[in-house]
Amino acid sequence: MKLVTSQQMRSIDHTAIEEYGIAGTVLMENAGRAVADAAEEMVEGFGHVAVVCGRGNNGGDGFVAARHLYNRGMSVEVFLLAEAGELSGDAATNCRIAQKMGLPIVENPDTEVLEAAVDSADIVIDAILGIGISGEVHGAAQSAIETINQSLALVLAVDIPSGLSSDTGAVLGEAVEADRTLTFGLPKVGHYCYPGRDLCGEIEVVDISLPQELLTSDALTTNLTEAVDAWLMLPYRWGDMHKGDAGRLLIVAGSAGMTGAAALAGLGAARSGAGLVTLAVPESLNDILEAKCTEVMTLPVPETGQRSLARETAAQILAFAENCDAVALGPGLSQVSETQELARELIGRISQPLVVDADGLNACVDATDVLKDRSAPTVITPHPGELSRLVDLSVTDIQADRVGAARQAAGDLSCVVVLKGAATVTATADGEVWVNPTGNPGMASGGVGDVLTGVIAALLAGGADDLEAAVSGVFYHGRAGDLAAERCGERGLVASDLLEQVPAAFLDGGLTV
Known about the structure:
The protein is of the alpha/beta class. The chain is built from 22 helices and 17 strands. Helix 6 (139-150) links the parallel strand 4 (123-127) and strand 5.
């Protein structure tokens, strides 16, 4: 499903009205009726409803919802944070209709009046601010949002919780904390990027009769990964395939104190369907990795005095890689200068599809040309700190607009970028972006990213292209984390808990998610 910015959604609305001839009042009527249906469902047809409206089209949707609920016999009060005479267009039309029907409408309510109404309501409909705001919320809107957030009533947000950026998910000073958000036509980027995702509650996308061709246009390049998308991106597995057909993968990883990273990446790959997985590891650590990874083979290679991979091992690794379908590099590799030199050489010379993570990315700081100049498919999996060191963006800037940051980095580095975090964002060099909905806070634990490296690399080795491997790998890795949390809870979840759930995450293709 496509995700849109406020500008893109306004353009879709404008095209629907001006070119297709769908009246704005029709769109508003459809939206408001859907809000009324949702509100009635939330309170099971009984209870008192407080509808808090702003002066724009979001408020107009609120007036329509109030009218339908009033007609259904529910107790409804409307609080307009303006004078009725200040409204224009379709919002003004629906305000006048509500007035003529005798709906109780309080204009410019003072704080005490609104507090009393909200406190006595069973449900509050937030129709204050829509998707178009960009500056910080202030004045009557800010006060109303604070009042709503202090109440115990259920909260239904119209299109987006008021005060939330629809483009980034950022809180613009103050934002409504909704139990449910009904959004129209398409979900917005801010619905699925934090902290916005936490404030939306249950998100439901409603059809308000916008033309489908506008909602599926190739010009919309940001996507929400759905289960069917991830399933269709998986490499095909036929009935008589053997382990060589399932993908030969080499993982270059590990150093003293970091054998766990190598093991988790290797086992993550094995549990994601790679037919043959080999870990290239420092020779003195080989016995440890063989004990940790029964199903994964090892390639012991020369090491430095710090027990990390030595530069001289490049030829041996490159020769082995020639017989592999994909390579992953970085987990637990160390930042020993000689090993970092090796990493840069391997990234520049490996001709197979490549996943670069952790210390492999650190090796590219101030040397990003090794990534840009690769001709084979390349996926990098940085967390915000690692990405900040690779591109000219602070961690604060990255987190403020994760979609924009991932898109910029993918273009700058000429590869697929998987920006880890909540929510993980995958971007391609040509600007396509996928936002992942799976995963949970329990995955904020050491080693979870190493498993992801293995999952993505396994799918690459199995025949998926770089984007498919990244998008589906991220989805199923997050789903494994969700299954692990269901089994043992989020608090205390460790990477090995997630690892055990990887096969189950693929079991039904995620189509029940």
